[in-house]
């Protein structure tokens, strides 16, 4: 009989590095990326026996990272709105460890969360539009639209900085 803890360790070793890169591309913050990966891994492993396709662990993990990131952004938005209502200045949250010279990264990080996730999945994770749509939980047409709008926004942002 196999040791389930050994299986979990193997899954973590196999996917942690790629998940960390993916989460960093979404957040631009190494610490936040590490937290996202840990939270996502715990959630997916906790439901491992309920997964429809246990062999698709990486797909479930990636989707969980996207969902947790979106949830965190929503939570921050609510916090900022509360602080503004209370008359306090919201704290500045930004990608502290990215060099200012990296115009493309700043532009990617400035994209709305779903557009950023679509760009990261499509071009950095090299997923097809269909696979990116599966991770994002939307139709292929919606993923194509997110990618097109994000690409257009990136071109406009980078083009305006070059002028």
Structural account:
- This protein has 163 residues and is mostly helical.
- Residues 1-5 and 89-101 have low confidence and may be disordered.
- Helix content is 74%, strand content 0%.
- The protein contains 7 helices and no strands.
- α4 packs across α7 (140-162) and α6 (129-136) packs across α7 (140-162).
- It has helices at residues 4-27, 30-46, 57-85, 103-110, 113-124, 129-136, 140-162.
In short:
Helices cover about 75% and strands about 0% of the residues. It has helices at about 5-25, 30-45, 55-85, 105-110, 115-125, 130-135, 140-160.
SSE layout and pairing:
Layout: H1 4-27, H2 30-46, H3 57-85, H4 103-110, H5 113-124, H6 129-136, H7 140-162
Secondary-structure-derived class? mainly alpha
Low confidence ranges:
1-5, 89-101
> Could you give the count of β-strands?
0
- Count of separate DSSP helical elements: 7
Order of helices and strands: HHHHHHH
Q: What is the helix content?
A: over 70%
Mean model confidence by pLDDT: 80
Q: Largest sheet, if any?
A: none
